[in-house]
Write a structure and sequence with these properties.
The complex is a heterodimer.
Chain A (H helix, E strand, L loop, with lengths): L3 E3 L4 E5 L4 E7 L3 E7 L5 E6 L17 H14 L7 E7 L14 H16 L3 E6 L5 E6 L4 E5 L6 E2 L1
Parallel strand pairs in A: 1-3, 6-7
Antiparallel strand pairs in A: 2-5, 3-8, 4-5, 4-6, 8-9, 9-10
Chain B lengths: L10 H26 L4 E2 L3 E6 H7 L6 E11 L3 E8 H11 L12 H26 L3 E3 L3 E6 H13 L4 E11 L3 E9 L1 H10 L5
Antiparallel strand pairs in B: 1-7, 2-7, 3-4, 3-5, 3-6, 4-8, 7-8
The chains are: A alpha+beta, B alpha+beta.
Chain lengths: 160, 206
């Protein structure tokens, strides 16, 4: 077993086997795991918001669905991955509370939609997803196998 | 209207915000101790400008299971408020409120969650009321909602609202405890322009 590389909120990391990459307590944020299915270069980005173009302070590229995925692809390509061999798995985008203030209204749903749109534009297929609903998720991604392990409170661990 | 720049927040502002946290949570604690019929202690509130990466660990780790009561804040001041209690502490708190009628074991019954939501409602109401009295601003809580989940997932909700402005979150955090049994936090997260309103209502130039 390799090491587990930790990705924070609005953060991204690339990862090579046998290591894994993890992010803890995803709420409305979305964790997008990418992997080159031939050379097994992987990576994970933890995005918070759907769209960098509507926000003036957008210097942190990992914070948004569009720039976050873009940047992760770029860093994986630098490690020898090829975009046309990439596949994706996604998790998160929950609605933690039924009530919310205006800024965060349906942000989980919007994040998931935005992620799907961006991946489609990039021509990266989504192999599996565990999104929406109302609970937080901890995820661990292993580029060696492509396994995306999801843990939630009071639920059995699952692998997608 | 100029926005408050997070990087220019001075020590004075921190002190004022800390005092707000102190008064708000002081009132909330009075309400809570009346409800429980016992004394509750409180730490001096902390006002922190946290990087997103530090948010989870600020209250004991991203995966710490907490009971969170969330309310939107409306009126002149907008934003959100969280009342967070560590799971085991929440169990103790509820059992006290329900006079020992709580369900044994790890999980929460519907009745217990409902009681916890009501506790959250009353004490966050006390918090916001005192803030309203202090500032002369209209501040109303929206109806609360409750979840039992990982701290990181719960805190992602206010963090996302700050994500629009930058990569940091300004939290007014008060910690309270009763002997060693109850360990919880109030977190008030005003929107950026509400910080400006609060500070100027108290005579701070912003």
């Amino acid at each position: 077993m390799g090491e587990l590389i930790k990705v924070g909120m609005a953060d991204l990391k690339t990862c090579l086997p046998p290591n894994g990459v993890t992010t803890l307590g995803l709420g409305s944020c979305v964790g997008i795991a990418l992997r080159d299915k031939f050379n097994k270069v992987g990576g994970l980005v933890h995005i918070m918001l759907p769209d960098s173009t509507v926000i003036s302070n957008n210097t942190n590229r990992a914070k948004f669905a569009d720039t976050g995925i873009d940047e992760l692809i770029r860093q994986m390509e630098a490690l020898g991955a090829s975009r046309r061999n990439m596949v994706a798995k996604i998790a998160g985008g929950a609605t933690m509370f039924a009530v919310s203030s205006r800024a965060s209204l349906n942000v989980g749903e919007k994040n998931v939609e935005a992620v799907k749109k961006v991946l489609k534009e990039k021509g990266i297929p989504i192999l599996a997803e565990d999104t929406g609903l109302n609970f937080g998720r901890t995820v661990i991604f292993y580029p060696e196998t492509g396994d995306y392990v999801i843990r939630a409170v009071g639920k059995p661990e699952k692998t997608i | 209207m100029s926005e408050l720049n997070l990087n220019e927040v001075t020590q004075n502002y921190y002190d004022v915000l800390k005092e707000i946290g102190n008064i708000g949570s002081g009132n909330a604690m009075t309400a809570l101790s009346q409800m429980l019929g016992c004394k509750i202690d409180m730490e001096v509130p902390k006002v922190d400008l946290l990087e997103f990466s530090e948010v989870g660990s600020a209250i004991g780790g991203e995966e710490q299971i907490m009971v969170g009561v969330f309310l939107g804040v409306e009126g002149d001041v907008t934003g959100s408020m969280l009342f967070l209690v560590e799971k085991q502490s929440a169990k103790t708190l509820i059992s006290k409120v329900m006079m020992g009628m709580g369900q044994p074991g790890e999980d929460f019954s519907e009745m217990e969650l409902s009681a916890m939501q009501e506790v959250g409602n009353i004490i966050t109401g006390a918090y916001l009321n005192s803030l309203s009295t202090l500032t002369g601003l209209r501040i109303y809580p929206s109806p609360p909602d409750l979840t039992v989940d990982m701290a990181g997932a719960i805190l992602s909700v206010p963090a996302i609202e700050f994500g629009v402005y930058g990569d940091q979150i300004l939290m007014i955090q008060s910690r309270f405890f009763h002997e060693v049994q109850i360990d919880g936090y109030f977190i008030l997260v005003p929107d950026m322009d509400s910080y400006r309103k609060i500070l100027s209502s108290l005579g701070m130039p912003v």
